[in-house]
Amino acid sequence: MDALCGSGELGSKFWDANLSLHTDTPDLTPCFQNSLLAWVPCIYLWAALPCYLIYLRHHHHGYIVLSHLSRLKTVVGVLLWCVSWADLFYSFHGLVHGWAPAPVFFVTPLVVGVTMLLATLLIQYERLQGVQSSGVLIIFWFLCVVCAIIPFRSKILSATVEGKILDPFRFTTFYIYFALVFCALILSCFREKPPLFSSKNVDPNPCPETDAGFLSRLSFWWFTKLAILGYRRPLEDQDLWSLNKENRSEVVVQRLLEAWKKQQKQAAQHKAAAASGKTVASEDEELLGGRPRPRKPSFLQALMVTFGPGFTISTCFMLIQDLLSFVNPQLLSILIRFISNPTAPTWWGFLVAGLMFVCSVMQTLILHQYYHCIFVMGLRLRTGIIGVIYRKALVITNSVKRESTVGELVNLMSVDAQRITDIAPFLNMLWSGPLQIVLAIYFLWQKLGPSILAGVALMVLLIPINGVVAMKMRTLQVEQMKFKDSRIKLMSEILGGIKVLKLYAWEPSFLEQVEGIRHSELRLLRQAAYLHAISIFTWICTPFLVTLITLGVYVSVRPNNVLDAEKAFVSVSLFNILKNPLSMLPQLISGLTQTSVSLKRIQHFLTQDELDPQCVERNTITPGYAVTIDNGTFTWAQDLPPTLHSIDIQVPKGALVAMVGPVGCGKSSLVSALLGEMEKLEGKVHVKGSVAYVPQQAWIQNCTLQDNVLFGQALDPKRYQRTLEACALLADLEVLPGGDKTEIGEKGINLSGGQRQRVSLARAVYSNADIYLLDDPLSAVDSHVAKHIFDKVIGPEGVLAGKTRVLVTHGISFLPQTDFVVVLADGQVSEVGTYPALLQRNGSFANFLHNYAPDEGEERLEENSRTAALEEVDDEEVLLIEDTLSSHTDLMDNEPVLYEVQKQFMRQLSTMSSEGEGQGRPVPRRRLGPAEKLAQAAEAKANGTLIEEEKMETGKVKLSVFWDYARAVGLCTTLVICLLYAGQSAAAIGANMWLSAWTNEATEDGRRNSTTQRLGVYATLGILQGFLVVLSSIMMVVGCVRAACLLHQTLLHNKMRSPQSFFDTTPSGRILNRFSKDICVIDEALAPTILMLLSSFYTSISTLVVIVASTPLFAVVTLPLAAFYILVQRFYVATSRQLKRLESVSRSPVYSHFSETVTGSSVIRAYGRSQAFEAISDAKVDTNQRSCYPSISSNRWLGVRVEFMGNLVVFFAALFAVIGRSSLSPGMVGLSVSYALQVTFSLNWMIRMLSDLETNIVAVERVKEYSKTETEAPWVVEGSRPPAGWPTKGEVEFRNYSVRYRPGLDLVLKDLSLRVRGGEKVGIVGRTGAGKSSMTLSLFRLLEAAGGEIRIDGLNVADIGLHDLRSQLTIIPQDPILFSGTLRMNLDPFSNSSEEDIWRALELSHLKSFVSSQPAGLDFQCSEGGENLSVGQRQLVCLARALLRKSRILVLDEATAAIDLETDDLIQATIRTQFESCTVLTIAHRLNTIMDYTRVLVLDKGTVAEFDSPTNLIAARGIFYGMARDAGLA
Predict the structure, then answer these.
(1) Is the peptide bond before 1287 cis (omega within 30 degrees of 0)?
(2) Cα distance between residue 35 and residue 24, in whole Å
């Protein structure tokens, strides 16, 4: 290098230590300045160029129009090039004139000139590629300026020393060069306009990141606007930015699908190759290990192909950050040496402090770029996986669907996809962890030699201990989940059947069950929390123990090993670096095992069988036919026997074909076979034309009624109106709150069965298809509505006349109007022909008719009389309203309902159902009974709204909530925890101060007299710290478990005692959410959050204490830093809290839409709407990711700001140490700077934990809110209990009794006075809304009197406890509700009855044969809601309950829906015989059951209209006569 600079006057050496280092005014030699210093920016640009050009080639965003800014940049670049060439020509000029300049004066201008030209060209090339702000060039110009600052100073210095300018020309060109480079740097910081044709131009709310400048991206400045907005007011959905194109589902899912298909293709080829190679497998191959295993398509590889490139970029960031993290300990070592050496020039110290700051800032910026990159990749992973699972779910076969429940499929999406996303950010630890460990050990070895092995050995030993603790915690968690699930399931059932529990007074039994489960749950929770305390202990005390052992070994091994500040504190900071990877690796490994399970599950699901799209031939068919099957044999799954065999059917175009046959003969299967839903074993199926399908179980989407009918087609008002009319939906629209804009809840929750079926039919009619496959659409509706629908829609005169219709039906009356009938028996076609032909044949069809319609003649008569009566009214709407209301109980007593307002309610239902999902696990929801729906309508009147919108908490959490929680934990416990933490921090500071004093001893004189005493005190302080940590953790555990126990208990007891009206106006999903999600947060999330918060808070405080103690000057900057910190914290917490809420609100629709799709996949496929549904799902995922993305960015925004502040702390700690070096010992400096180096992490963590605490403490608020609602009357009033054996006679008397549903509503019973004598049988009848149900509810005090009283055997029921009253009355309710558990528990939850009594009751209720046929007998397990019993059997179980209770008063609320008449007759017969001496009150819907009762009470608008024996009432020709005539009884 010296040769390059030449000799002579201008020549100089390349490096001169005396000039550059050992002086108070350092400078670099002219040679160094002109050569290496000038080349640094050029070397950078040329090195970065190849990669950058490749990047630009692949990321073309459209070109940017030439702007003034771009022109200016180019002019500056050209001028710089000119200046460099001027220097070069000046050197040549010198050469020509005989004074030979040094070679460097030729080389440098040439290199710089070419580089400037390159930079200028790059500016233009970037503009053409659409780059708005160039990071590469900003760094280049920045380097140019930094490298030019040194010559800038030295040129001025040398001029002042010499008194003249030695080389005026070069002096001038240099300053011009400096000015231009500085301009270039300033200009490059501004960003260009967005490129033409970019997506930004069309997007209403684009993400500001896309066109943020380089510096803005580096510091996440682009997020600030949202942070300020979130601070001013709670963020809403519309404030969120749209996703960038590369993060959207359409792009991500497509890429992943392509990669996965490639995998499948390769696997298929591999399989084929293996198959063809099978035949030639020679003997020796067999011996050597058989054939190659068939290759499965690997989902992991598909993920790697799709997301690998993004991962590689993040890897580079991670590598740089890892290397940078080791620079600061080295700088610390130099700083301590500098402090120990009083002769060193002061500027060294300032330089080290500056370098520490620069290094920390670089580390911060790079680390957050890494995190941003990797977390966004995690989001893409989730988007991709969800999209692929969704698409697969639309094409899986029925056998696959049968193997797994909807819940399991949703779990693939919610749990497994989330796991893979969660692990993604930590995958780089797999190589970065070992790298950090190796580097740390290497640097430690340099300082302390082999002694460090002792410390490392301890760390390695702790890994398996942590691993074991983590494993144990995981198993406890799994067990606890089981208890939690069973508790939630039980709660969900209790809420579903709360009315029955109240009527039977069974609450205590169920309360006990829940508390039993909760007790086991808390036991596990306590164990897990103790383990957590152990892991926290190891985490906090590891660094200390390791330092102790290492330093102890070091000073004990050899007498001349002196511990000085440099060795001690540099090794402490290196051990701190080492702590991270060592604690992360075991977690990562256990996380990876979980993730691999998730990956396998997803891969297994994705490789399942798909439906064969070719099994139904859609293009060719015999002319004149619409549907044909030739010799078809079908099965539901390959391993099952065929359900349908050798089927031959031809359906001519435009024909109406009925399919009939006994239950289970394969009618629905045949329809499925036509849709291609079954697996075809042989034969051919041809279906020509578009298909509309009405399934037996109507599938309703969670959207408006209109959207359900349109099903993605455009609205044609005329056709739409015609459809609604034909499907008898107009009357329903009048009843529904928002007409056809009413939001339908999940699974059609707020429609009756008949309405659901008609909506499903309307969807088919509106679709205007060629072929209609109708799977028994008439069974769910009342008979007169069925007739209407057949006439107006399906029949020869209906809307669909002329279309091909295949109708599965049980309704015999419609068969004469069909074109021909297909009779199925045992999966085969037994007869085909027209109705008359089949009747004459006297085959299986004729038998079928006789079985199903023995009294067809009578039925006809009845029907005729009924139609005659109706024709007088001459309006079909009556029928339709009757059907609509037939599923509603008569709760709506004379309430003029404000249906408009009911809109709120329907909306609410849909939000409730999406809200009901706690922690990504779908919660079983109850259907609101029709009664509750109407009760909700009734409330409308009271306050103008129905179900109040659930408050989504916004803004800051009130302090009272924290106070509530502290009280639940126990105030003493809370105080002790805080004190213990303070003590622990004090012990830690003490130990470190002691270490600092110990190291100073070494510098004072070389002797090491008191090693044992030093080590002993250090160890004692450390062990004290560890002891306090464990103690505080355990106190916290005890407190938090106590709080969890208390909060759940108060909530549960309050809910069990809430009045029925509360459950009518609150969706059960909302109550269940309190028990699942909120209690889960209180159990699991709050304690760790508070622990972390306390520990980071105390760490930060102790850092400040130590720094201020060692360098009091630092106190000056603490205030501005604290102010900045609090400001950032306020902005962040407000924004991030709201973003988290938005994220959780937008998450459940993704899963509920998925479960809806899985249940309705056959309908979606039949109508050919798969792609549309994929798009809907993508849109829902994108909506969710829209709130995840800012949430991730908010963490980065916070991180950069808070860590910058932490870096300032490091800088000032070092700076003030340098300033006050005369008064400071090296030990104190080491102590304060090594503390400062840790502070960034704890400052950042503290804000994050504060935010989490605010998010999580809301759970306490929500639980508290529902623990304070009003309760019903006491269950037992000790002072006034009824006499034993009451009521003896069973007299019931209403005296001027009035009642209303809730305060502020109209009376539903007005001044009712009547007396029922003991043993009378009274039927109660009346139009819908006359007050029939209200009477029974009043009797049981589910409604409390507004005036008057009810007396039973002369005792006023209002004076006794609710349980004393309810346990003495018996009701057989309308909808039979059973709870999951044994049959015995369902009959007798308190185990009051003997075994014989129970069997006797079962015998009387005709269930004995069924129960004795079950292997478990009375311990037969009923499933949830009694789903594994038929409706009839459930009704009989309720009868058995009534028989067991043996009370004097029986209330019978007749089932509205015509449950099978057999069951009904059985119940009536039993009641007549067994309850002969009891008082029976029957709410009758079918008058023939009460025609032989003693008296009949006719209610009208809440008053007694008629009350006499049936014969007298008919003779009086009043209201009852009219009703009897309509029913054909008079």
Answers:
(1) yes
(2) 24
